[in-house]
Amino acid sequence: NLLPALFMENARKGSIVSRANSIGSTSASSVPNTDDEDSDYHQEPYKESYKDRRRRAHTQAEQKRRGAIKKGYDDLQAIVPTCEQQDFCIGSQKLSKAIILQKTIDYIQFLHKEKKKQEEEVSTLRKDAMALKIMKVNYEQIVKAHQDNPSEGKDQVTDEVKFNVFQGIMDSLFQSFNASISVTSFQELSACVFSWIEEHCKPQTLRDIVIGVLHQLKSQLY
Known about the structure:
Blueprint (H helix, E strand, L loop, with lengths): L1 H29 L3 H46 L1 H4 L12 H52 L10 H22 L5 H15 L2 H19 L1
Helix pairs in contact: 5-6, 5-7
């Protein structure tokens, strides 16, 4: 009776140990791995934070780009005068980007034309200024020569004689002009003027008129 009782006791203890090991392994398997969990816990927020930073940086860059474009269009609309003068059909509506660009192109082309025109005017003024400088130098030389030799001007022609010469030339021209020009209509006047110039204002004709007037005045003076 002692052996069977001892055998039963050992069997009962083995069963208890086996069940304890089973419970321990089950409990151990049910408990999460703290090292792996800690590792996943630290890595996942880092990945999300990196994505968020990239997304935020991209959003900020896009907003900055759009802001720069909008500012550029606003500046163009403020600088270009024609953008402020909105068409009647548009009314108070905001100008589209296409219209702003087209008006800007038109205004730039207008400025190029104005610049070319002003450059031509400046070139003409420079030529005039150069001619005036040459005339100034010549007159200064004439004045200096007259101051150095004041006696040379005693025999010069008076203004009255000059006027008589001019009057004689103009009287002769007016006689031919009055005889040749018709004032019935503007068309006839235009045609007659050109015809009179071609016939009576040739260099040889003018030379003969001037010589005749001078001979006439000479005979009157002397």
